[in-house]
Amino acid sequence: MGPFSNLFANILKKDKKPLKPLPIESVFKLPSSIPNFPPGNHGATFYEPSSIPEGFFMLGCYSQTNNKPLFGWILAGKSVANETSPSALAMPTDYSLIWSSESHKLKQDGGNGYIWLPTPPEGYKAVGYVVTNSPEKPSVHKIRCVMSDFTDAVEVDNWVWGLDKNINSNNLNLFESRPKDRGINALSVPTGSFVVQNGGAPNDVSMVYCLRNTKNNLLAMPNLSQVKALIQNYSPKVYFHPNEEYFPSSVSWFFQNGALLYEKGKETTPSLIEPNGSNLPQGGSNDDSYWLDLPIDNPAKERVKKGDLEEARAYFHIKPMFGATFTDIALWVFYPFNGPARAKVEIINVSLGKIGEHVGDWEHLTLRVSNYNGELKKVYFSEHSGGQWINSSDIEFENGNKPVAYASLHGHAFYSKPGLVLQGSGGIGIRNDTAKSKEVMDTGVRPVVVAAEYLGSLVAEPPWLNYSRKWGPKISYDINKEIKKVRSVLPRVIRRAFDKFVSGLPNEVLGEDGPTGPKMKNNWSGDEKY
C-alpha cells in the first residue's frame, strides 16, 4: 500500500476514526448572469482547502456550480518518510496559466480568476489545479505533485461551468472528475478536484490525475456491525404511486407462493422452488436453459403479480469503491411483476397495452458513503437501463438521515423527486409517473445483507443470488400487434411521430425477456451506469 493509504490506515488504527477531507474556502466566484452563455449556466465558485494540518499539503482546488448548496471536499496529502525511497510528494517546478477571466470581461466576486496547472518534476504528476484571484504565479510551495506510481487516469464527470457546455468544444469548460478505472477491485482514488477542458478535452484531461493505492488494502472498510449501523442510518424510504398495482415482495414470498422453475425441453413439468432457492441451478451463464415464471393457476398468478409490500425486503450488497476510500451500499428490491407502460404523445396519454409487462423485476438504489468520515455523499437512482447519481445536498430526507426515493408507476424506476419524467423527446415518450402515497417501504426494516465479498465468510450468500438465468420468461404476446392497437386510436397527424418513438424503444421497455438477477449486472462488481 502506498504512502497515502498507509496514512489513512495509521490514523484509523490510532484514533479509531477515519481521516476527514479538509474543509474549503472560497477563492473567487463567477456570476450566473453572463451574456451568450449556455442555458443552465449558474456560474461557479472555486475553493481551496483551509485549516491544513501541519505536515499536510494542498493537492488541488475544488469547484462547484452556484445553484447548489456547498457540498464539497478536497484531499490533502502527507508523505510518509522512507529512507529507501524518494518522497511521494514534490513541489512543482513552475506553473502554466490554463485560463483567465480577464479577456472575457466577466463581472465576478473577488476580482479576476486564474487557473494554474502545476508543472511537476520528472517522475511526478499534477493531481489538481491552483486557482487564484491574482495574475501573479502562485508560489511553488503552495501545492504538491504526486509520484507517478501513486497516480492514475481520470475522466470528465458532471459539467460544472463553462463557455458552451460542450465536451468537444475548443472553449473553456470545467467538469467534475472521476477515476477512469472504477469498480470493486479498482485502486484509483478521487481527490475531489475538477478537470479543465480548454481547447480540446482529450489533451486537457490528461494533464491532471487522481491518486492510486498500490495495494488493495481494505482496512478502512466497515465491519459487519458498522455495515448494519450504516443501513439503519441511511436506508432509504421508497414511496409508491397512488395508482400502483404491482408491489415488491421478498424473494422467499415469491417462491413460497407458487413461482415456478422451467427447464428448456421440459416445459410441461416445471418445478416449485425452495424458499431460499436451494434447488435453483447455480453458476453458469444466462443461456436460456432455465427461467422462472408465475404460478399456472390464474387466481394465484394474479395474486402473486401484485406482490406483498408487508413481506417485501431490501437486499444489500456492500462493496469497496475508489480503492476502498468509499463504501457503496447497493440495495436491491424485487417485484414479481412489472406492469404495462404508458406513453405521452404530445397532449394525449395512451396505454401501451401489454408493452412493458414482464415477470420478475429487479430495481436498486446505491448509497455512496465516505470511509474518511462516514458521511453519505451520493445516492444512485436506477432508471430502467441507466440512472443518475444525486449529491446528498440535493436529496429529500425524512427522519433525519433517510433518503427518499420515488418508484415510478408500473415501471418501478427510482427517482429523487415526485412528478413526471418523460423518457423520450419532443413531447413524446414513456411516462414515468411518481408521487407520494400511503404505500411506502422503509428499506431499513428487515434488511438482508446478501453479499459483502471483502468480509469473507461473515456474510453467506443465499442460493438464489447465484442463479444466473432469467427471473421471467420470454414474452408471450405479439409486440407488433400491441403497437398497432395503440396506433389505431391516435389522431393521424401524430402517428408518424409515434412510429419514430416506438422504433427507439429499448428492450427493457418492450419487455422481451425477464431480467437476470442482481449478481449478473455489470454494476455488481463495477461502477453504476450513468
UniProtKB/TrEMBL annotation:
Pfam families: Vps62. InterPro entries: Vps62. Residues 509-530 are annotated as: Disordered. PANTHER family: DUF946 FAMILY PROTEIN (DUF946), F1C9.34 PROTEIN. This is Vacuolar protein sorting-associated protein 62. It comes from Lactuca saligna.
